Amino acid sequence: MRRVSSSLIAAGFVPDAGLPDALHRQLYKKLREQILHGRLTPGGRMPSSRSLADDLRVSRNTVIHAFEQLAAEGYLEAKTGSGTFVVSDLPDRMISASQSKSARASQQVAYVPSSSKTPIASRFAGLIANKELKTFAPPIFQPFQLGFPALDAFPFDTWARLITRHGANGRNEFLGYAPTEGHLRLRQAITEYLAVARGVRCDPGDIVVVSGAQQALDLTARLLINPRDPVIVEEPGYFGAQSVLQAASARLVPVPVDQAGIDPAQIPKAGRNARLAYLTPSNHFPLGSNMSVKRRMEWIEWASACDGLIVEDDYDSEFRYSSRPTPALQSLDRACRVIYIGTFSKVLFPALRLAYVVLPPNLVEPFRRAKAITDFHSAALEQIVVADFMAEGHFGRHIRRMRVLYLERLEVLREALEEHLAGAIEIERTDAGMHLVLKFKDERDDAAIALKAASMGISVVALSSCYLGARKASGLLLGYAGYRPEQIRAGVKKLAAVIAECSAA
Predict the structure, then answer these.
(1) pTM
(2) Which of 39, 154, 189, 209 is deepest in the core (most CB within 10 A)?
(3) Which CATH number fits domain 6-104: 2.40.50.90, 2.40.50.100, 3.40.50.80, 1.10.10.10?
(4) DSSP secondary structure letters along 363-395
């Protein structure tokens, strides 16, 4: 029987105590890789644990643990009095099927994957595998990532005290399973807040708590959309919603947005039979316009006329700086045509993953059942903490403080852009939200600029990525709420250098 050389195993393997994996896991992975790639041939005898440990300059226990794991998984076998061997009957799918068993015992063989393609099991899997489907970028906390609130100004001491209050006592009410629709205390707090802050008319029974606004959109799409159903969306619009709707096999019908918002009179022929519209009326994403009352009433009339529904995504309208937040579209609805979505991710912090949906009465139970099938319920302890945070007044105070802070940071961003990019851009005026839109004065490849900026540690979103149709404005979306003035100034200076480099190329 051929003996495996210690030097063959040691070749290219340098144990590193600084890696996350323990040394025995590093050795296990190396040996497994060599077996699967045929460098350790089936039936070959392994060197003794002592000699291999000496060659690798590791402890003998490190080698023994690695051998034991490989034996447990069926890669090695120990024979009493003879030593440890690579198993001789590895499945054909692990090694080249073109070689005979006799050849495998004497030749090195390569691992040949059966297929390099991702297995597609359903229409949905095929849709989400489409590279054109827009998803979120990796969560990198760097200027000017969208959706980051001011974590440096969040009252974590208060938050920690509330968590300790409920998490330390071990009460099953807070640490066991929770109601699918969400804890009643939180739904009551949301009801009271929405009535005052957004003019939303509802009671706790109309609310379902979900794991983020994205889940709210996903469940809504599953309940209301059949394949090829037309759905009205804003042009440009929120790419996260576009992707959810496309994954639900909807046929998106983009309608242009102007300063008064999206106009139902501009619905094209392709959308005449649509019965669902997705809107961001109080702070349009991405352009920041505030839909006029006239347009809001026209959309309510549209929904009533076609027996349709409107999804109102109210993602960050708490942050309006020159006036009080505009009442929600839902506040005008007397015919139960609006599904209202609100989130705590932008107001508190993204990792919380809590949002809520205010539903027409006939949709509450179907939505609750869909939520139960998906994940039973959202994080239970965090729901109680948020309920206390709201009931004790911390929530309202935090929002008021953030309005002041975000306006300051917005002004810093505007000043920095004027200083470094005045000749190249136009800044879209906004008095709300957490991001700013800049448009290029001439034709530029904003996607290429965004990609280059990412390589330089600057996270921006290309405005063109928010469009579905052929006519695309060129610009960038810059989040500012989560970044201190010095970060904003340094980020703009670096971004200006990127834009200049891309222009010269």
Answers:
(1) 0.77
(2) 209
(3) 1.10.10.10
(4) HHHHHHHHHHHHHSSS-HHHHHHHHHHHHTTHH
